[in-house]
Amino acid sequence: MARRGIRPSPADGMRPSRHQTADAGKAPGRGVRRTWRPGEPYDLLGCLHVLRRGPYDPACRVVDSAVWRTVRTPAGPATLRIAPLGGLVEAEAWGPAAEWALDRLPPLLGADDDPGAFVPHHDLLREAHRRNPGLRLARTGLVMESLIPSVLEQKVTAEEAHRAWRRLVRRFGEPAPGPRDDLYVMPAPRTWALIPSWEWHRAGVDSKRSETILRAVQRWSRMEEAARMDLDAAIARLGALPGIGPWTAAETLQRSNGAADAVTVGDLHLPGIVGYALTGRRGCDDDGMLELLAPYAEQGQRHRAARLILTMGRVPARRVPKMPRVDIAAL
User: Fold this and answer.
1) Whole-model pTM?
2) What distance in Å separates the CA atoms of residue 110 and residue 259, rounded to the nearest whole number?
3) What is the DSSP string of 11-27?
4) Are 251 and 150 in contact (CB under 8 A)?
């Protein structure tokens, strides 16, 4: 979650009792297709919307009921179109990594997530859980595609971070394979490393954030290994890099690892929202939020609890001005 406001696995994350996949083949002029049966209930957009960085994200778009998503994988770039099809989810993929992406479709769509592990301890969370029975936590298995935009979101507004991501991906990424000319694949590691300082400045990214991204890019493979680690080890791996703290690590691992317990601390708004939603009182800080979410720590479900709280829209009225937008590109 920005300042507001899927570990690689072969298609083995499959549990036949919960879902099935099937190749639909490749028709002339089309990409490789595959279907997945999620079981009911299931909320496709609710699962995948956290992967989109703003409404104009060049790497992830929602068109009608379909999610279009580009990925840079160890096998190269790919474009995915994912849409509901009756009781199924149909995915079509283009590019060198089309098969790679489709092999990892079930985890991306939340197949490895277990919402049944969540037991509500608050009336509001019981209601949120009842209203969102189809919510699943996506697991991309790709760390850097979430780490870089999360670094861009450090200590700035969501609008500023989304603008920076959009400019950098469009300018230095590559046109996405497939039929859409408005999608781009994020830059390759070497391309990120060669972005000149003035281009970071024009994108509104200060030196602290750009240097953090460059350090991560230099350790791309090491960072990606975190997708195959348990939560504590993954947090330690990311946090060993200067400039990556608990906030950035949690925001990354929620997406790359589908980490149900990766609660976001250090956020400007989340503690106040959680505190107000669960107690009706204002001014909750990180310690207070963690205390309120402690029953869900025992379940390993604090991130899910916070995400369900956000679906209820119960937020305190604003008493202070919005965080100012500072456009360093104009300086």
Assistant:
1) 0.88
2) 11
3) GGG--TTT--EEEEEE-
4) yes
